[in-house]
Design a protein that fits this description.
Length: about 130
């Protein structure tokens, strides 16, 4: 930390890295799926809350989670392609059915692009109210 930042804010009290969030399960790393299935080249993770609503609404053993993840990633890629100029935040929506018998609901998602644990860019998919 630079001397002027330390003088202004003091010592760092706590930090929580992206790697720690993935290890703790707060973020689900979907980088391999994103790259293999959609061509997204940046590392991609989705928050546990967004995962529960958009990917696995029927619970952790949801058999349709893989298909829903693909839909979320394809919609993200479409939102990236349709963005009007450079941006670090995109909003998009996905229609989700917890089961074939239920009516679909719309889940709003937000994608943030910025530095992760290093200055290299990463993408994090969240619910709109999450930071």
């Amino acid at each position: 930390m630079s001397d002027s930042l330390f003088e202004t804010f003091g010592e760092v009290i706590a930090s929580y890295s992206r790697a720690e969030a993935i290890e703790d399960g707060e973020l689900v790393d979907v980088t391999a799926s994103a790259a293999a299935l959609t061509g997204i080249r940046y590392p991609v993770a989705i928050t546990r809350a967004a995962w529960a609503e958009a990917v696995a609404p029927a619970g952790p053993t949801d058999p349709r989670a893989s298909a829903r993840l693909l839909v979320v990633l394809l919609l993200l890629r479409s939102a990236i392609k349709l963005a009007n100029g450079p941006t670090d935040t995109l909003s998009f929506r996905v229609r989700v059915r917890a089961s074939p018998d239920e009516e679909a609901s719309v889940v709003a998602l937000k994608a943030l692009c910025g530095p992760g644990d290093t200055p290299a860019p990463v993408i994090t998919i969240t619910l709109p109210h999450e930071d």
